[in-house]
Amino acid sequence: MIDTIYDIFISYKRKSLPTANNLYYRLTTRGYSTFFDLEEMGRDNLNVQLLNYIDNTKGFSTIFSKK
């Protein structure tokens, strides 16, 4: 269980990492607490972790990319 409430959860595919990283930087420098899985998640029980983080986030941003 986590005790941090995030303002924004960033969802992205690995091939969109540069875009997600840029968004993360821009949001955090403006004072938003932002969930970005490169910094937050361990490698065990990923589905459970994701659901916990999503449950503790006020907003959600999805980055779509072309195939």
Describe this structure in words.
The chain has 67 residues and is an alpha/beta fold. It has one domain (6-62). Helix content is 40%, strand content 21%. Strands 2-1-3 form a three-stranded parallel β-sheet, with helices on both faces. Strand 1, helix 1 and strand 2 (34-35) form a beta-alpha-beta unit. The protein is globular. The mean pLDDT is 84.
Supply database-style keywords.
3 helices; 67 residues; alpha/beta
How can the largest sheet be summarized?
Answer: 3 strands, parallel
Please tell me how large the radius of gyration is.
12 Å
**Sequence stretches where pLDDT stays below 50 over 5 or more residues:** none
Across the major sheet, the strand order is 2-1-3
Which sequence of SSEs, written as H and E, runs from N to C? EHEHHE
Number of helices: 3
Chain-averaged pLDDT: 84
Q: What number of domains?
A: 1
DSSP summary, beta strand count:
3
Taken as a percent bin, the fraction of beta residues is: 15-25%
| N→C terminal distance | 34 Å
Residues in helix, %: 40-55%
Structural class: alpha/beta
Molecular shape:
globular
Write the layout of secondary structure elements.
Elements: E1 6-11, H1 17-29, E2 34-35, H2 37-40, H3 46-55, E3 57-62
Parallel strand pairs: 1-2, 1-3
